[in-house]
Amino acid sequence: MTKLITVFGASGQQGGGVVQALLKNPNYKVRALTRNPESETSLKLKEQGVEVVKCDDSDSKEIIQEALSGSYGVFCVTNYWGYFEKEVEYGRNMADAALAAGIKHFIFSGLTPMNEISQGRFSVPHYDQKYLIEKYIRELSKLNPKTFISSFVYAPGYMQNFLTFYKLKKNIESDGSETYTLSTPSDPIGKPLDIGDITEMGYIVESILSDPIKYSGSVIPMSGDCLTGPQIAEIYSKVTGKTVNFEFIPPSVFRTLPFIHHSEDIASMYEFCNEYGAFGGIDTSIAPKMHKLKTFEEFLISQNVKLE
Q1: Which end of the chain is more exposed for a tag (fewer CB within 10 A), N or C?
Q2: pLDDT tens series, the chain, 308 aa
Q3: Is residue 227 classed as helix, strand or coil in its secondary structure?
Q4: pTM for this prediction
Q5: What is the C-alpha separation between 155 and 161, in angstroms, rounded?
Q6: In degrees to the nearest 10, what's the CA dihedral of 46, 49, 55, 56?
Q7: Going from the N-terminus, what domains does the chain have, and what CATH number goes with each?
């Protein structure tokens, strides 16, 4: 029997990856929830046979419940950068709506509980708020163990961010040669950073959906590669044939940079990652067994990255 899976954030990188993975599996039909059903991305989804429904994180429980009607499972990713302190309220409301709609399997995209793992030393709202939502979802499953299974995926650092947010700086040396600099707050002598092609999250979600009992209550962190800043720069050099050097920006300096949006939050995230690693010791061996995840080198090659 074909199961209907509804995907929040279907026009984004995570949700979009989930949609594409599920479309390849004949066991599933896909419903995409989006703020704008007439956007270019939404229209392309419709062309692929996806049911597109207008729904936003901030909608009422009743509206979200209706949007989920008839679904077996849900993939839910919340938008901290869109709603900030409202994220927890909206995330809990989405879970309540899913329970009311009779959803059997609720998969939530969370993040490492940095404040809890560090015993309060590091406060990283865009991570910690997702953990508050996760705890609420777990409580709903505890109260409804036979009818509301929940599972959790944790995203790594996006490999895509190295093509946008951490874009390389071009330098002209004294001899006229060109070099490039990658600058991040990832300490070369700290823990290496877990990163992944975030569009591959869909294959992890697909695997979790295929065995709800096995993955009930589980946290599956996704990591395609685990690298230091200098290693990332070295891979850039190998793939592009250009000289790429790494520059470490201490988090204490990074958080003062006026041109970086949300620098405080991101600096605290790197302070945690430099000391504990991106997942704070949570087992990362499960996701690669579910799907062959791209290494950073494979990702750059797949994106046909060139430096000119």
Answers
A1: N
A2: 899 999 999 999 999 999 999 999 999 999 999 999 999 999 999 999 999 999 999 999 999 999 999 999 999 999 988 888 899 999 999 999 999 999 999 999 999 999 999 999 999 999 999 999 999 999 999 999 999 999 999 999 999 999 998 989 999 988 988 999 999 999 999 999 999 999 999 999 999 999 999 999 999 999 999 999 999 999 999 999 999 999 999 999 999 988 667 888 999 999 999 999 999 999 999 999 999 999 999 999 999 999 98
A3: strand
A4: 0.95
A5: 13
A6: -80
A7: 3-157+197-221 (3.40.50.720), 158-193+225-278+294-302 (3.90.25.10)
